[in-house]
Amino acid sequence: GESVGLHLPTLSVQEGDNSIINCAYSNSASDYFIWYKQESGKGPQFIIDIRSNMDKRQGQRVTVLLNKTVKHLSLQIAATQPGDSAVYFCAEENMEYGNKLVFGAGTILRVKS
Amino acid sequence: DAGITQSPRHKVTETGTPVTLRCHQTENHRYMYWYRQDPGHGLRLIHYSYGVKDTDKGEVSDGYSVSRSKTEDFLLTLESATSSQTSVYFCAISERTWSGTQYFGPGTRLLVL
User: Fold this and answer.
1) pLDDT tens string for chain A (113 positions)?
2) Chain B residues within 8 A of A31 when measuring between CB atoms
3) Which is it for the CA torsion A85, A65, B94, A104, positive or negative?
4) A15, A35, A57, B49: which has the highest count of C-beta atoms within 10 A?
């Protein structure tokens, strides 16, 4: 299997339900955040991004929520489908690292049919 | 993976041998990046390039070198491969610097015996 999936938290949801994937980021000064989706054997795929001057942004079937007070980011997927099964991870633009993107380890989403 | 290819996709090599991975883009993006992905870790930046012949180190650059002689190609060299460099390597590109969305290639799975 895909070695990147080892030791990651797993979220199992029923097809058609909504999914919420959470991410805690490290730097309160981080200004930009991205969610990526990675299917087995593939490279990460951009889903949605948000800047720190917003607390919510919606895309197609996805919504990202940003809570700067507790340094928390969440990705909501509406009407989850089998094709949504993947590893999801967030990234922050972290000033402590020269404004480079710092990536979380990820969460496995499994969709049950 | 649109517009980004990586070669080889899989490679097995022996400790002490040099290895070169190639990233090729057709998007004419200025910025290119090399990451490695390991179990339990997020993507970690090895090196990046902000233009032809302009490169800089990331957080895990020891044992790696890069070159960019053309906009479209970014090469990653493991000067003398070690078992700790067994990983999945991803190339990424972006139009703008860190606050710009990075798009990833399909990855190269490297096994160092």
Assistant:
1) 333 345 689 999 999 999 999 999 888 888 899 999 999 999 999 999 999 999 999 999 999 999 999 999 999 999 999 999 999 999 998 776 666 888 888 999 999 99
2) 99
3) negative
4) A35
State which amino acid sits at residue B27.
E
Non-local (6+) Cβ contacts of B62 within 8 A are none
Report how far residue A72's alpha carbon sits from residue A26's, in angstroms, rounded to the nearest whole number.
9
Helices and strands in chain B, H and E counts: 0, 11
Q: Is B45 close to A46, i.e. CB distance below 8 A?
A: no
Nearest to B98 among A8, A89, A101 (CB): A101
Question: In 3D, which of A25, A21, A47 has the Cα closest to residue A36?
Answer: A47
Query: Residue A10 in contact with residue A105, Cβ under 8 Å?
Result: no
| The pair of three-digit structure tokens given for residue A9, joined into one six-digit string | 């938290």
